Amino acid sequence: MTTMILLFIIITLSFLIFIIILFNCRTILEIIKPKDDKPLHINMDYIRDVRYFKNSFENKIRGIILNNIKVNNDSLLISCPKLNEKYVEVRENTVISNKKVCNVLFVKKEFYASFSYFEKEVYVINKATINNCVFRVLACQNYIDAFSGKIEVTRWIDAKKIIIGPDSDVHYLSASLAVIFPFSTFYSINAEKIIFLSKNSTDNIKIIRDSYRYKVQINNERKINYHVKIDKTYEYYESDTIIFANAYYSNSIIAEGKLIINQNCIIFGDIKGFDDIIINSNVQIYGNVISEKSIYIDSNCRIYGNVFACKNITLKPKVIIGSIEKYESIIGYGKIEVYVPCTIFGRIQANDGIYVKDE
Known about the structure:
The chain is mostly beta strands. The chain has helices at about 1-25, 25-30, 50-60, 205-210; strands spanning about 70, 75-80, 85-90, 95, 100, 105, 110-115, 115-125, 125-130, 135-140, 145, 150-165, 170-180, 185-195, 235, 240-245, 250, 250-255, 260, 265, 270-275, 275-280, 285, 290, 295, 300-305, 305-310, 315, 320, 330, 335-340, 340-355. The protein starts with a helix and ends with a strand.
């Protein structure tokens, strides 16, 4: 009898525990792995120099100790212990074709290179014109034109203005203005303005090369505010959500399920999603877009904020991120696909690569 009572008690307690867990499983999961129920409030106020790499390399070049000077054909070899290099090769106007260059190269005026491999850093004062070359590092004080042929850069490339032609492969790019054509791949792009153009836009290249004057006022003391402080109120959705076309929101949106924002919506606030976020065409968002999965932004959208995704990000044609007054970041832990034409003011980075495509 006692055994039966004990068994009944155990079964009853087990049933009660099961019921408690069943009805409080979300609470238990929240305790074990808490979610951020509000959009991320990231303090991004800091002094930013988009051309940090070029400036640091330039300082090293200008700080070299001039000794053991030797003349080698039309160039000057200078030992450079501060760069841990045996020699830095100093030239005036330079044309290099079908060669492998092993020294650090410092070009005082204009630089033309085609079908060559540069094992060390290359620094150019005036203008660099590149056609089918491989660089470790290419830094230019003025303008790099790599439109005529693809360029491969294993570390970083930097200039005030850069044109990257089709089918290029660049690890890190920093510039004041970057113009990029399709079928190129990047890891990170950091620029005051990034323009993605299609191959059909080649007629505009002459304007970009010759007539366009992109005025950049760099002030190292300037602070750029990256984050739009949102209102304390927000809309919270516990399941898949569709925001109908032409909607207007004056606060932030948080969605536990998939979030779809239809055409012509205007949202003054951040968007946080625990699932995929799909933003259809002609949407304006004055805030950050953050997803724990993927983000898809359709054509003609304007985002005045950062775009962060734990997986992939897709930007369709004529998307604009940020503004000239306020630089933003697009960061994906997966890959980022950019369909030309697009414009981005700020930084774009993806762990699995940035792929520039043409529809």
